Amino acid sequence: MFIRSLSLKNFRNYVEEEISFSDGINILTGINAQGKTNAAEAIFFLCTGYSPRANRDKLVVRHGEETASIKGVASSRYGEVSVCIDFNKLDKKNIFVNELQVLKIGEILGNINSVFFNPSELKLVQESPEDRRRFLNVSLSQMNKSYFYALQRYNKILSQRNNLLKDPDAYIIRETLPIWDVQLSKEAAKIIKARNEFLKELSPIAEEKHSLLSDGKETLKMKTESGYYGTEEEIAYALKEDLSLGLERDMRLGFTTIGPHRDDIKFTLNGDDVRVFGSQGQQRTVALSLKLAETETFFNKFGEYPILILDDVLSELDKKRQRKLIGAVEKMQTVFTATGLDRSVFKDKSFNRIIVENGKIKKNKK
Ligand SMILES: Nc1ncnc2c1ncn2[C@@H]1O[C@H](COP(=O)(O)OP(=O)(O)OP(=O)(O)O)[C@@H](O)[C@H]1O
Ligand SMILES: [Mg+2]
Questions:
Q1: How remote is the CA of residue 66 from the centroid of ligand 2, in Å?
Q2: What is the rounded CA–CA span in Å between residue 355 and residue 84?
Q3: Three-state DSSP class for 280?
Q4: Interacting residues of 107 by C-beta distance below 8 A, sequence separation 6+
Q5: Which numbered ligand comes closest to the C-alpha of 39?
Q6: Ligand 1, atom 18: nearest CA belongs to which residue?
Q7: Mutate which of 12, 57, 336 to test ligand 1's pocket (most atoms within 8 Å of Cβ)?
Q8: In whole angstroms, what is the distance from residue 4 CA to residue 73 CA?
């Protein structure tokens, strides 16, 4: 999968620009606050329909403007695809795939695939389980639309269940909940099974990538704690039983205490919990290893790599890890952003350097 061109209109600090990308390494360079991350964000938007950093779509519309649009043309082994998103100040966006409007946001998924990494992805290792679940949800939704729809249904039923648990009438809760729980367990089982399979494939690859980036000095181990295994039916059955066993506790607390919305992943390096003991560089390397492993799982599933977007990653790693990283991304199209360019870490590798200056593309050639 390769992105060929990206057109931005009134998107963040861009008025109207087009960026062309080459198949290998692309580097968006420029001093701070020029629009490098904005361009990287736009690519991810075209893949998933949402921003990796803004939670309100209207924030991307250039100050003083009413509408914005981004368009990307990508090619995959199935041919060329164009994805366009029109934004407006009302927070409503229109999505077009190959010029045809799609009505459900989920339909944007799978047209252009990418793996996005920027310094805030450190949250993946450092912060709450929610950040790790978000990683699973973003990857799995891009790979499998039915995962995204199951997750949407699950979240809806879960929030209804949680509202019901707050009902002062315990009789109503006991009467109604078992019906909700059948549906909740069914959707939960799809999510859990997909996560189990994904993590089973991802973990050994992430461990291998970490070893590569750390020059064999650190051993990463990943452990997941869903506690439910087997077929979808088996998982749904076990979860439904647990939901009913945990009913009194859930009623007391007023929310659902078990299910995929509580899943987590634990990381250890040479046996120590990375969240507690890992250095910044080690935590960054773990997060990066996960993302690199994610690109391999895409490859295993689709026979081609996603676009790898690495925002501000190089400056955060020591030279040795930078070189290792550049060696590891050789097989796929990569879009780096960086304030400076240290040619020594690229050795003899060619790259497309794109200079960004105040929302304008100053130079865009190999
Ligand atoms: N909706 C918007 N309208 C106009 N400008 C915006 C909007 N949103 C963000 N910007 C501006 O875009 C500029 C560039 O942001 P961006 O994050 O892309 O910089 P960058 O080149 O990645 O810088 P750094 O090297 O510091 O990461 C910022 O100065 C920001 O104020
Ligand atoms: Mg930036």
A1: 24
A2: 24
A3: helix
A4: 95, 97, 145
A5: 1
A6: 35
A7: 12
A8: 6
Q: Taking CB atoms and a 6 Å cutoff, what residues make up the pocket around ligand 1?
A: 12-13, 30, 32-38, 59-63, 312, 337, 339
Give residue for tokens 């252009």.
112
Whole-number Å distance, alpha carbon 153 to ligand 1 midpoint, is 35
> CA torsion, points 22, 25, 29, 35, in degrees to nearest 10?
60
pLDDT one digit per residue (tens) for the chain, 366 residues = 999 999 999 999 999 999 999 999 999 999 999 999 999 999 999 999 999 887 889 999 999 999 999 999 999 988 999 999 999 988 889 999 999 999 999 999 999 999 999 988 888 898 889 999 999 999 999 999 999 999 999 999 999 999 999 988 988 888 999 999 999 999 999 999 999 999 999 999 999 999 999 999 999 999 887 789 999 999 999 999 999 999 999 999 999 999 999 889 999 999 999 999 999 999 999 999 999 999 999 999 999 999 999 999 988 888 998 999 999 999 999 999 999 888 888 888 889 999 999 999 997 765
Burial label for 208, CB within 10 Å (0-12, 13-18, 19+), is middle
What are the residue boundaries of the structural domains of the chain, listed by start? 1-113+306-366, 123-302
Looking from the CA of residue 63, the nearest atom of ligand 1 is 3
Fold assignment, 123-302: Glutathione S-transferase Yfyf (Class Pi); Chain A, domain 2 (1.20.1050)
* pLDDT for the residue 202: 96
What pTM does this model have? 0.93
Provide the 8-state DSSP code for 351.
Answer: E
User: Would you say the CATH fold of 123-302 matches that of 1-113+306-366?
Assistant: no
Q: What's the CA-to-centroid distance between 333 and ligand 1, angstroms? A: 24
Q: Which atom of ligand 1 has the smallest separation from the CA of 39?
A: 18
Q: Class of 1-113+306-366 per CATH? A: alpha beta
Query: Ligand 1: which of 10, 36, 315, 339 to mutate, most ligand atoms within 8 Å of CB?
Result: 36
Cα–Cα distance measured from residue 48 to residue 122, given in angstroms and rounded to the nearest whole number? 20
Q: Closest ligand 1 atom to the C-alpha of 312? A: 27
Nearest CA to ligand 1 atom 28: 33
